[in-house]
């Protein structure tokens, strides 16, 4: 059924719910004190992105990658297809897991353990050691698993301590992760609009599909290297067109308002089969990144352009 057009701009921020997910905790660092900005739990990353694309929410906070398990495919793929969305902020959250059970449950009673696949993967070794006979079941999120344990569907959930509290569960084991100190990187995405102002410690994210020819990826990387732009992350995802055609998801240091970055993106636009700009935003770690060589600083670009203009005008050689 067609929905009536909205009369007011959306204000709520969507996140992977239900209440008690790491995504909700990360969103709390963006929205500040509770009540300042409305938050809305969604059943999946895809649903959170859809809520922004269809105008129901102003933004969505979604997990992009984890320091132990790598990228979150639902987010990577959700940003590459569909109406454009751009990242306006990133948040790093240290994730620690507990094994949550209904009060009175012992390890010997646990036959099923549920969680988000990324959380299960980060605790794979400990689960196998503590619960060798248990079935491991994927859930939509860590808090979804906790809620379903409270409802009696599963015996245990791998979730945040706050989710165990929220759903009245006990933490049978704390510090469950195989690699303590894991960090998940979340990004706030919004419909394209004004860009966040450069801070001097920024990141730019793009996706690019290269033509199927020898050296295409090397050529793409060279566009960044010759302009002194450091890559912070690169990985490939299938485009789902056919085997062998990939979309490269890339973070580089710098802001699109830096001449070296905009110049590199323009070169990629000429060179690649497809490029999507996914945002320039402040780095969560506030680190300035690698020093920018003088030859690729904004002043060097301005001086070079002024010289070309003089050449074109016939006043310089
Ligand atoms: O299920 C949650 O609590 C989430 O916020 C999702 C998610 C993820 O997608 O990686 C976030 C952080 C943890 O690494 C595990 C799960």
From TrEMBL:
Do you know which PROSITE patterns this protein is assigned to? ACT (PS51671), PREPHENATE_DEHYDR_1 (PS00857), PREPHENATE_DEHYDR_3 (PS51171)
Q: Name one GO molecular function term.
A: prephenate dehydratase activity
Q: Write out the catalysed reaction.
A: prephenate + H(+) = 3-phenylpyruvate + CO2 + H2O
Q: In which pathway does it act?
A: Amino-acid biosynthesis; L-phenylalanine biosynthesis; phenylpyruvate from prephenate: step 1/1
Q: What residue stretches are annotated with the ACT domain?
A: 205-280
Gene3D superfamilies found in the cross-reference section:
3.30.70.260, Periplasmic binding protein-like II (3.40.190.10)
- Give residue numbers for the site Essential for prephenate dehydratase activity: 184
The Prephenate dehydratase domain is annotated at: 12-191
One Gene Ontology CC term in the entry: cytoplasm
Question: Which domain of life, per UniProt?
Answer: Bacteria
Gene Ontology biological process terms, A to Z: L-phenylalanine biosynthetic process
Q: What is this protein called?
A: Prephenate dehydratase
What EC identifiers does the entry list?
4.2.1.51
Q: Which UniProt keywords apply?
A: Amino-acid biosynthesis, Aromatic amino acid biosynthesis, Lyase, Phenylalanine biosynthesis
């Amino acid at each position: 059924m067609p929905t009536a057009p909205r009369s007011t701009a959306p204000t709520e921020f969507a996140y992977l719910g239900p209440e008690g997910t790491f995504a909700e905790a990360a969103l709390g660092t963006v929205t500040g004190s509770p009540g300042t900005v409305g938050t809305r739990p969604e059943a999946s990353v895809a649903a959170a992105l859809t809520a922004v694309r269809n105008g129901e929410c102003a933004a969505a906070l979604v997990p992009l990658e984890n320091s132990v398990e790598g990228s979150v495919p639902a987010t990577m793929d959700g940003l590459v297809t569909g109406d454009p969305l751009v990242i306006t902020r990133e948040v790093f959250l240290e994730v620690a897991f507990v094994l949550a059970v209904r009060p009175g449950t012992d390890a010997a009673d646990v036959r099923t353990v549920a969680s988000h696949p990324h959380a299960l993967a980060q605790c794979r070794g400990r689960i196998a050691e503590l619960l060798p006979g248990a079935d491991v079941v994927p859930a939509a999120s860590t808090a979804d698993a906790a809620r379903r344990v409270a409802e009696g569907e599963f015996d245990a959930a791998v979730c945040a301590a706050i989710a165990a509290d929220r759903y009245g569960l006990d933490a049978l084991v704390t510090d469950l992760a195989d690699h303590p100190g894991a960090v998940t990187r979340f990004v706030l995405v919004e419909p394209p609009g004004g860009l966040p102002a450069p801070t001097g410690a920024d990141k730019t994210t793009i996706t690019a599909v290269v033509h199927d020819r020898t050296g295409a990826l090397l050529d793409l990387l060279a566009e960044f290297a010759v302009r002194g732009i450091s890559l912070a992350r690169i990985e490939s995802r299938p485009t789902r067109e056919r085997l062998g055609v990939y979309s490269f998801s890339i973070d580089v240091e710098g802001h699109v308002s830096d001449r070296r970055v905009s110049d590199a993106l323009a070169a990629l636009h000429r060179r690649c089969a497809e490029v999507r700009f996914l945002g320039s935003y402040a780095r969560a770690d506030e680190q300035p990144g690698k020093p920018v060589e003088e030859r690729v600083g904004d002043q060097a670009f301005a001086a070079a352009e002024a010289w070309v203009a003089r050449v074109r005008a016939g006043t310089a050689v």
